[in-house]
Design a protein that fits this description.
132 residues; alpha+beta; six-stranded mixed sheet; 5 helices; 40% helix
Length: 132
């Protein structure tokens, strides 16, 4: 999904948030339970932008006009390099209604989990503020 990729690469998290459907479901690579809703998903994505360093997309997989997309990326969390993939589904309006992230290797996922856990309080505050 070109608009999502360009917004992430530009670190324009407001533009990323605008691409999310109200009923989006975010599936984390390090938490079992999915997160439903735009407010929490946007807050998580803002936190990820704070945690990832040297983030870059490596390639896109999928039909540009299709509903399913995969964006392969690389990033660093602290001293750990990781590779991952954003699996994106868009609804009929072209908004993201499903976003699942996978990362590897295990040491990278563990570093990501620790860094995101440190962001948890801020994520909760941001999600609550978005709910109004």
């Amino acid at each position: 999904m070109r608009a999502f990729r360009e917004a992430v690469e530009a670190q324009d998290m407001d533009a990323v948030e605008a691409l999310l459907a109200e009923d989006v479901v975010f599936t984390s690579p390090v938490v079992f339970k999915p997160y439903p809703g735009k407010a929490i998903t946007a807050a998580i994505l803002h936190a990820v932008a704070r945690v990832f360093e040297d983030f870059r997309y490596l390639r896109e997989i999928g039909d540009a006009d299709g509903a399913d997309h995969a964006l392969v990326f690389s990033a660093r969390v602290g001293d750990r390099e990781l590779t991952g993939c954003d699996f994106i589904h868009v609804n009929e309006e072209g908004l993201i209604d499903d976003l699942m992230v996978m990362v590897r290797p295990l040491s990278g996922a563990q570093a990501l989990q620790a860094a995101m856990a440190a962001q948890f309080e801020q994520i909760a505050k941001e999600a609550e503020a978005r709910l109004g």
